[in-house]
Amino acid sequence: MTTRIAIDRPIVERCFLMNLDRREDRLKEWMEQIPDPWPFPHPERFMAIDGRRVATPPQWRAGNGAWGCYRSHALILEKCLIERINSYVVFEDDAGFCEDFAQQLKAYVTELPADWGLAYLGGQHLYAGKHPPHKISEHVYRPYNVNRTHAFMVRGRENMKVLYRHLHWSDWHSKHHIDHHLGRLTQRRYQSLVQGKNVDKESIAVYAPDRWLVGQLPTKSNICGRKWEQTRFFNDARNADHSDAPFYAVLGPHRSGTSCVAMVMHHLGVHMGNQLGGYEATGGGEAVGLAQLCEKAMRFPAVDPTMSDEQLTQQLKSWIVTRKAEANRDKTVAGGKYPHLCRFVEHLHAGLGGSLKVISVERDIEASIRSLQNRSEKHRGQWFAANDEQCDRLQRSLMQHRDAFLEKHPEIDVFRIEFAELTTHPEEVIRNLIEFLGIQPTAEEIAAAIDHVDPQLRKHG
Question: Where is the Glycosyl transferase family domain (predicted)?
């Protein structure tokens, strides 16, 4: 059992607040909003380096503001090493706090493993789709890579030396900031302990809370110049992969009406991907990136993937988590369509769990087979053409995998669309689809979705 640090002594020896001389306004605002009770030593203002007033090295490409931020953090660390300060917490003057900060901090610190060297209080988890934070306890996670430096704690002289050496090595990537460079240090321990890789460089134990305790205040950034509308808390460790956001997978064999449904969803405002393509002249509703991923895993007209289950699950999840984040930014939901997903639906479920929602497009399988055979006949020699036997085998395989999954997982939310009914009564079907998606499209979006449905499509059924 991992030893935990005691809470009956001060969490850290010193508390620093980084603040530029020209930003007295932010100093005043920050001091006025710090929580009561305050669980740290009294904040000591640290005069931050003003990147506008110093000369940056020729190799630095990240901007003057980023240089000042890096040098300020490095000088605080240097001060602690010289003065034999064994632990400290540092806040940038745009740090804002969660409700019940002292209580939430106590829960986090009480569970911190005894080896902690750097403990983030606020930040942003990067690459969380592919490398989700690893749960240590209820309130503590081991992150893969944390962005932003507005609030963190450091402890232990040896840890400080490792951190100091890392910040002064010359292997910085072009245009990277201090938080990017720290992120690579954080990755080492994760790669070693979570992924079992051999890491031959120095590392320290880095942890993050299950939910961020410190966000960024709605003030204009000294580095990027952006301003938020309210205190901004980024993706939490326990939800870094947006597991609470749904993903709507459109499932159906080739030529079953899935392209029409996907484009209806696109017109309704569902985020189906950043670049849509597909066979249909009116739009196939297929994200290019998702199509490429699926074809790499199972080249048409194959019926089984050549990629390992683990790798396929991870790549699908990584693509989807990014789309979820983009959808969340745009205040909508994410979806995806490609026929291969019928075969990969178990992989989707393994990666997404209960956040997977299914839109099953139903069409007579014989009609879908004939349609794919006709398409192939028109495009002999193209990569998306197959002989009649291959078309038959592929279509039946896709449908069987989808239907077997839905039978096996009755807990999954499913919306079934009869393609013939969609082309006959588009308004009614689309209204029910909107309810299933839980979105509120505009009247113009609904009209565009209805107009996309071509009643002539039913002749193929």
Answer: 64-131
